[in-house]
Fold these 2 entries.
Entry 1:
Amino acid sequence: MTSKKTVAAMLILMLVVVPAFLYWLNASYWFGVAGTMMVFAILAVSANLITGTTGLLSLGHAGFYGIGAYTAAMTATAWHWPFYLTIPAAGLAAAAVGILLALPIMRLVGIYFAVATLAVGEIIHVTLLNWVDFTHGPMGISGIPGIALAGVFKSGNLANYFAGAGLLIATVFAVHRLTHSYYGNALRSLREDDQCAQAMGLKVVRIKTEAFAFSCFFAGVAGALWAHTTQYISPGDFRFSESILILAMVVVGGLGSIPGALIGALLLVGLPEVLRPFGDYRMIGVGLVMFLCILFLPRGICGEVSAMALARKHLNAAWKPSQQLGWR
Amino acid sequence: MMETDFLIQQLINGISIGLVYALMAIGFTLIFGVLNVVNFAHGEIYMLGAFVGLLLITTFAPPLFVVIIFVLAFGAVMGLALDRVAFRPFRRFRDEASMKSKAIREATLLSSLALSIVIREGVEKIFGSNMQVVPQDYLLISPVQIGSFSFASGQFLIFGLSMAMLVGLQLLLFKTHIGRSIRAVASNPAGAMYVGIHTENVIMATFAVGSMLGASAGIVVGLYQGAVFPAMGFAPGIKAFVAMVMGGLHSIPGAVICALILGIAETFTTSYLAQGWGDLVAYAFLLLTLIFFPTGIFGAARERV
């Protein structure tokens, strides 16, 4: 029950307290920071699905984020699609590209898969950068319409904030339902031992491809949100360093844990802003915090609760110390 | 005639870029072989090698070979420090399962990445993010005419140094005690421990050797291209990583050959297509290699970990 209360408190904080406070401050800058946080929170949750839960280390997540952003930007500028069409379109485009790329590379295992995703991410980035006729190359796309609904609300800080919050809540809900189900258990079994999972009758390649597609879909949604809220995108936003940043969020927060991914995004986006008074030293501070987190909290700040710990918690009275499993 | 000359010229340019990637890829491969982890700070060792060499040149202006020897020594020290700070704290357990486990791999991957951010930003803080000025006397771009081909003097240095390093590395790995220990730990860490090899020392030696190669590549490229800046390690680091994976992760000859292929492919793409597409070819190569040879061209049988 406490967990439900926590969720309600978080929702109130996110949907009422923070926007009211920022609105009262009238701080466009902090609205921007909050928007970036929510985009990266969606990215971290989606990367967590593939890297944390399914155990496939993805080093190219920023590529799918970029595909989403460019899809939304182009459909919005060239065809004047409203945001409620571009955002799902961006997610679907990213998922479609993800499935196409997953077909050949899903057979790879371990570090080979990670490197293949790195190559995919870089190919997407180089294409965005050099296909000048189509993507405008390094100039990027400007003048993307903001999030607005004619006659209902205008685009602005609050609209951006609530769009981000809504998409983040939807993403967290979807990924939570996905990972806390039999399907999620199947994904976890692939992480622990995919040969064993196959022997138990799971279609390994198919399930991995599906998980990858879901992950890419949410990355694409995050890209669309980024495009609409900043109204300007360029290939520089979707480089390898962004993929690594997303991965760092997942690992610092705790692999396989959705609250962990959210905390990781909050920390790694928020920290550079908080450290801004220290000027040039802030990135050094971010690196140090990352390093210390990994050193002292190897399971992450809010790591995944293992099945054994969960069983122990539920059976607390019935669980006697003499019943400890494993070596005594 | 002109066409073939141009072709050969490009081939030689490609080989000299490829050799630089090879020097870095060997460092990656050695460390991956012994620890099974990716060292993301390798590009920063390359950058530090260039900066330290440049600093030595601007303060003392010694002869070139002194610079290179100093950079090699510095690279070894940096390798040891890197191991001490970013890798050893995560080797808490010594059984084989945890040495090869996913958790330790991801932890060290990110710890080396965090350290590389700190190093890069620290250097940027001290020297600024712009390109450093390389003294004219040390720039290795004086043209050398052989027949109808013209080379830059730096290409000879890159070629000579890489060859010396590769031969030296082979001698080290196959003729000396420490080299044999490195190979033993790479093939089976627990087994090496059982026959009395001090694994910690071997890992330290591996980091020293790998970082020496990386740092020397850094200073030579810095002097050849005249470009020394804090972010210079990123692109060669990624290319070397790609070469390592294409070569099959554990194979040093494989990594060298793939690094040469990458270098040549990149040079030809940039001279026949537009500038920016060069990187695409490298990654497309990687993807195709992985699709058709799932464990790299020179990799062993498929490993399911």
Note: Chain B is about 75% helix and 5% strand.
Entry 2:
Amino acid sequence: MIYCLFGIVLVISLYTARHYWFTLNRLFGFQRHPYIDTDTANWPQVTILVAAHNEEKVVANILAALMNVNYPADRMMVVPVNDRSTDRTREIIDSFVEKHPGRIRPFHRTGGKGGKAAALKDAMEMVETEVILIFDADYIPGSGLIKQLVAPFFDPEVGGVMGRVVPLNVGTNLLTRLLDLERSGGYQVDQQARMNLHLVPQHGGTVAGVRLSALREIGGWNDKSLTEDTDLTYRLLLNGWQTVYQNRSECYEEVPETWPVRIKQIMRWAKGHNQALAAYGLHLLFGKHRATLRERIDGTLLLGVYAMAPVTLIGWLLALGVFYEGVVPLHGIIALFAFTAYAAVGNFAAFFEIAAAVRLDYTRQRVCLLPFLVLGFAVSIFSVSTAFVSQVTAPITGAKFHWDKTERFRTTP
Amino acid sequence: MVPLLPAIAEVRLKRDAQPLDVIQQYGGDIRHFAHGFRRVATRLQPQLQECVRSGATATGTLPDGDEFVLLGSADESFFVPATRKDSTWRSVVAAGADLVLPEGLTFAKEIYAAGDLTGGERSTFRAILGEKDIHLQRASKVIRWAHAAGRFRAEHDCDLFGRISSDQEVQLQSGCVFQRVGAPVIVAGFSDTAAIQSPSQAMEADADATPVPPGRTLYDGDLEIRAGEVFLGSVVTRGKLHIGAGAHVFGSVKSNGHMTIDSGVSVNGSLVGGMTAHVGSNCRIGGPVLAERGMVIESGTQCGSARNPTTVAAPTIELEEGVVVFGSLWARNEGRVVPKA
């Protein structure tokens, strides 16, 4: 039991060190934005897929925004992927098609397998361009965003591109404010540090792009995955394609406003991520493929982030077990130092990362909310652990994975 | 509870609960500030035209509190009183005709010229909008931006911070330092641009006639493409890359290590360097030319073409006289034009 506990402490310490490495890199390291200055080019033809499943509250916003971007109109085609919607989504899309002839080619899907990956897979029959951009329907791209997301594809090593997600409904309640902080940490620090350090920036499946030839090379969208973005990231990586992150390519999104919706969302992410861990983890770390050593290590750590929640819970249980068994793993002053060091440095890592992100964003008062993140972490750790248990026990219980769409809250379509 | 008080206060008061400021309508146009100042100049047009008709000058105050002076006709002598004091002209200047400025003066506010603008040597300009040509003399400085609807020319040793743009052409003499430049044609050194467009058109014709396979060839180590070799498709190397003289790549090129391109190389697509890139003389690059650490481009090389303008970007860029870029130049730290070796 004590060796298991030591192992868990070691892994947690590894993630703690990683948090610090990323944060210090963002604060003091060389920042990579290699494509952001590409403002003039012979812009390629691009297809913009807008994934929409019952999105009547938001789909008009994104279509209107896409009609106003500064990308050459004759070189972009917007394809709303209307995935079996039962609300007014189809009607709204068709009204835009009528208003903007030749610029929007809708893909109305009425049957087939559920889920975004399955919908995107079917929609590929509409795609002929080498560059594909993907947005979820609740996003609102700004005028210059499309050029920014296309620019990295001039680099022949780039297979995928990811932009930065910025919550729009920040001020709604405590949850949205905490999610705003988490997003800041995740993108402003985590993703950009991975970009800086030539590690593995993650494709997020929205505000994102993929190269058609790369997608074909890796076998297209995986409709068995609950998180097609994570799955895509790793298949690109294993085949020697880079996914790059553009921190300055920002786009508004809507974050969940209620805890049940948030819990559902994070459980889906956890299950999808764990699927990828099972599918690619060992092969990534030890297999023969095109990823570099640092990509192998970081990629594996990234795959393991959602598995860390149950591992941490197990660690707590083991610590209790060890205590009641009367085993003392560390003695005297060493125990005191270890405990103090972890309390001061270890627990602080994630908060430090988010505080640094908030500073990099030039915001001020929102950093005061940091203590409440404990609440968000507590909900996450139990939700993610529940998801993990349900996944592990699925072969026994016979539970099937299914894709849960995230509910929207916008009131003005 | 005390440590939580700031958090509770923030939840209740929502002092910082707005979304981050993502600029929705800014497309990154190099002329952004010029367009903004043109709106100011447009509002001054009726008074300015009156000054042009009468040959008089007028003064006033803009809504933001800045003073302005309108010049119906003026030459260097108008600014002489300022040169005698502290060499700083503190009001916005709008000229209805050609404008010739004295040397050694600092213009702390924007200048608008309806005609040609000729600066004096060692002058400093905050911002200039010229409806025709702008010609800056030796050792001048632009602090924020300058835009010419006609040609923009800067003599030796000018420091051009911020944005320099033209609707026709930018020419920068050796010793000029730049950050961001945009124009249909950008020439390092002065030359006849009519003569430099035909080779790129020839390359475009080549590119149109040769089918390029999609995807790319990936090399894990260093790579050399031999002199005179023709490479079909894009190439990516994780080490250093050397392309020998006269080679032709019908695709794009990426190197994660240092990249050396010898003279006379043609690349139809983009050239992307993960570290530094050295592009030799008389090369032709069709797509964007990007390097993450720094770039040197030798004389006679052309990037982009009149039909397909492109971007050349790196933290530091060194251009020899005789380099031509069709489109954009962007050196975040410093770009410099150097004499031909």
Note: The longest strand of chain A covers residues 242-253.
